[in-house]
Amino acid sequence: MKWLKAQASKACMSLIMWEPNKKTHLRFKKTCLSVLYPFAYSEFRTRKYKLLFNSAKICLAIASIVILFSFLINRDAALKTVRKHIGYKIDRLFFDDELDHELLRSVIYKESGVLVPTSVPYRDIKLMYDQCIEKKIPVYVFFRLIYTESRFDSTAVSNVGARGYCQIMPATWRSIAEKLNLSGNSCKNNIIISAELLKILKSEFSGFSDKKKWELVLSSYNAGISRVIQSGYEIPPIIETRNYVDKIMYRKIR
Q1: Are 52 and 39 in contact (CB under 8 A)?
Q2: What's the confidence (pLDDT) of residue 103?
Q3: Residue pair 122/100 in contact by the 8 Å Cβ criterion
Q4: DSSP labels, 7-54
Q5: How many angstroms from the chain centroid is the CA of residue 136?
Q6: Torsion angle, alpha carbons of 224, 226, 229, 235, to 10
Q7: What are phi and psi for residue 250, nearest 5 degrees?
Q8: Distance in angstroms (rounded) separating the CA atoms of residues 67 and 73
Q9: Which of 90, 101, 205, 230 is deepest in the core (most CB within 10 A)?
Q10: Interatomic CA distance for residues 162 and 194, integer angstroms
Q11: Which parts of the chain register pLDDT below 50?
Q12: Nearest partner of 155 among 190, 183, 184, judged by Cα
């Protein structure tokens, strides 16, 4: 059993390090991880994982078929074939929010160096990640920003009235909330409004290189876009803002 757990753990780490370039590939990654993860981390004590140990050979056989078809044809054809024969989605066979939570935290840590606290609800983490994809915000920028602003504390309130995960000021909140037709001071709205603000700021500096653009975006998020423009499209000479940009863009999160 120790050998099995060790091998499963190695396989999990290899899969977590793999960066899928298609949605189908991501489902394939989740499928394999959903099978292997309980073997590697047996502290997940739910009844349905007992089925894993009783049907391990079947699961590994299905995975082998998927891998074989992946090399011979492509992953799309492999998943279609497997689903046709077993009659249900393989990626939902042993998948649930508890396992998904751990996998998503692992992916985010790999991409940003930020380890999201386990106390943060899965729905909030997933929304943060989805907003990065939808609004084309680098994962490391958004998650480091949230870590820097609130340490992932949804109830955080600053001395000047900024609130939530992303520390949105009331005036900014009202302006963007009205534009997106959002109401209520919820965690979901806080994340969406922050991502929308970053998207707006990103469009203002679209003519700059990627590195320079995000430095200016973060400077504007912290100090205001007017100060960035007044500084000649450079990081304003404010110690707090310079440290803010440096921490998110370049420093290692400890």
Answers
A1: yes
A2: 80
A3: yes
A4: HHHHHHHHHHH---SSHHHHHHHHHHHHHHHHHH-TT---THHHHHHH
A5: 12
A6: -20
A7: -130, -30
A8: 10
A9: 90
A10: 12
A11: 41-49, 71, 82-83, 85-96
A12: 190
Specify the pLDDT at position 90.
41
Check whether residue 159 and residue 76 sit in a common domain: no
Domain range for residue 58? 2-95
Query: For residue 108, is it within any domain?
Result: no
191 phi, psi to nearest 5 deg: -70, -45
Is 103 inside any structural domain? no
Q: Do the domain assignments include residue 225?
A: yes
Residue 102 within any structural domain of the chain: no
**Has this prediction a pTM greater than 0.70?**
no
**Residue where a domain terminates, one of 30, 65, 95:** 95
pLDDT score, position 129: 92
Residues 146 and 220 grouped into a single domain:
yes
Predicted confidence at residue 246, as pLDDT, reads 95
